[in-house]
């Protein structure tokens, strides 16, 4: 068909490679829409009677490739991705709960997820109980006495690496008809797959993408559970963009190398800190005398990149330490290739009452490090000089 130029630029020539000439890296399907030649084929695709795509808010080949990869890594049948980690928590809660339902979450639950349950979902009549993740007796008692829709928990927890007993919590949830929902962001997409967890949530902003340049979230579960989530996520609208999906997929290529290297360096840093006189307590799951170490060894192959510790000098020492570091950016997030630090002033869980703050284990001198891919000797030298600066001022 001959076209005038304004028509041509909207219907450009096809330059797709032939079917036997594939791109080695999958292209970014930066398109909102997909078409078929006939109404009937479009309807068949919409009824899932044939493969195909229609509208990228529902699905897109680039995001789908990421979903399939993540489902395999976590050892489940399906996955749906989302624009951010906290977005996947929010959309999951909206999808799985209704007015009058009760949710169990924890003092140690990630702050914005706590806010979602305690404030946002409460406005829709979803009730909750907040316990300590270490209080297995309290968890059992609560689930025995109060019908509960889901238990949302994390392991290791943010920021002080408490280790949840995943098998026990999952067993208790199932014994009382609740879904076990594990925010597995800290452990990563390759760990904890052997447990009977119903639904894994992830912030892909962290280890999965790894480079601190893109945000994303994922819900990974059985086909039936993901089908229900996808139906709601599609209309809630927080889908991941194809370009972000491409960047996360690219990040995953180095995921194992990064996670293992960062874990090994974190172990060295933790061993250095635990022996340091300025430090009262170091929390890293790989440390033999860290609480939860035995459980962590049973549940994890690698212990992650987060090391937290308490400075004897308290909050002001924490401030001086963080400000004196050269190689650690003072900023949130974790799991990226560059090292990060959060001082006590930025970690304090202000929404918790004093008893809950005590149970959280976050003290006035608690500092969180996220260990990156820098040379371990350089990181240790930087930490040493910052500890001296913190003590000397
Ligand atoms: C355990 C956990 N879940 C969820 C999130 C939220 O992820 P995002 O920042 O991608 O929204 C975070 C972010 O720090 C997190 O640590």
Task: Tell me what the structure shows.
The chain has 393 residues and is α/β, with parallel strands linked by helices. The chain contains 15 helices and twelve strands. It has helices spanning 5-8, 39-46, 61-74, 85-96, 111-120, 136-145, 166-175, 223-236, 242-252, 255-274, 293-299, 314-324, 344-347, 354-360, 376-392, and strands at 78-82, 102-106, 127-131, 150-154, 179-183, 199-203, 217-221, 279-283, 306-311, 329-330, 340-342, 366-370. The strands form two sheets. It has a seven-stranded mixed beta sheet with strand order 1-7-6-5-4-2-3, sandwiched between helices. A five-stranded mixed beta sheet has the order 8-9-12-11-10. The protein starts with a helix and ends with a helix. The model has no long low-confidence stretch (mean pLDDT 97).
């Amino acid at each position: 068909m001959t076209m005038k130029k304004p028509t041509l630029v909207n219907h450009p020539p096809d330059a797709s490679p032939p079917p036997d000439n594939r791109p080695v890296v999958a292209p970014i399907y930066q398109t909102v829409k997909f078409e078929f030649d006939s109404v009937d084929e479009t309807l068949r695709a919409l009824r899932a009677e044939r493969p195909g795509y229609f509208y990228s808010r529902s699905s897109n080949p680039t995001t789908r490739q990421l979903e399939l990869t993540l489902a395999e890594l976590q050892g489940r049948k399906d996955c749906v991705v989302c624009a951010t980690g906290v977005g996947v928590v929010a959309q999951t809660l909206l999808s799985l709960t209704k007015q009058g339902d009760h949710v169990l979450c924890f003092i140690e639950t990630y702050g914005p997820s706590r806010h979602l349950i305690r404030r946002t979902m409460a406005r829709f009549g979803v009730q909750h109980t907040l316990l300590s993740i270490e209080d297995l007796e309290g968890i059992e008692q609560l689930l025995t006495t109060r019908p509960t829709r889901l238990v949302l928990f994390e392991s290791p927890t943010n920021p002080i690496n408490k280790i949840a007993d995943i098998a026990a919590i999952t067993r208790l949830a199932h014994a009382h008809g609740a879904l076990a929902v594990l925010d597995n962001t800290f452990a990563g997409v390759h760990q904890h797959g052997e447990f009977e967890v119903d639904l894994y949530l992830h912030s892909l902003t962290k280890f999965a993408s790894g480079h601190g340049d893109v945000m994303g979230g994922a819900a990974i579960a059985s086909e039936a559970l993901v089908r229900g989530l996808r139906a709601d996520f599609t209309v809630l609208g927080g889908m991941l963009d194809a370009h972000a999906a491409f960047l996360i997929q690219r990040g995953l290529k180095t995921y194992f190398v990064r996670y293992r290297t960062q874990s090994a360096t974190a172990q060295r840093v933790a061993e250095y800190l635990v022996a340091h006189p300025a430090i009262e307590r170091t929390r890293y799951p790989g440390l033999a005398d860290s609480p939860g170490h035995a459980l962590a060894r049973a549940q994890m192959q690698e212990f992650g990149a987060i090391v937290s510790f308490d400075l004897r000098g308290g909050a002001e020492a924490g401030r001086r330490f963080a400000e004196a570091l050269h190689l650690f950016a003072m900023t949130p997030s974790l799991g990226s290739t560059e090292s990060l630090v959060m001082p006590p002033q930025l970690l304090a869980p202000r929404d918790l009452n004093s008893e809950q703050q005590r149970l959280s284990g976050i003290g006035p001198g608690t500092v969180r490090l996220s260990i990156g891919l820098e040379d371990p000797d350089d990181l240790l030298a930087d930490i040493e000089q910052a500890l001296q600066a913190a003590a000397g001022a």
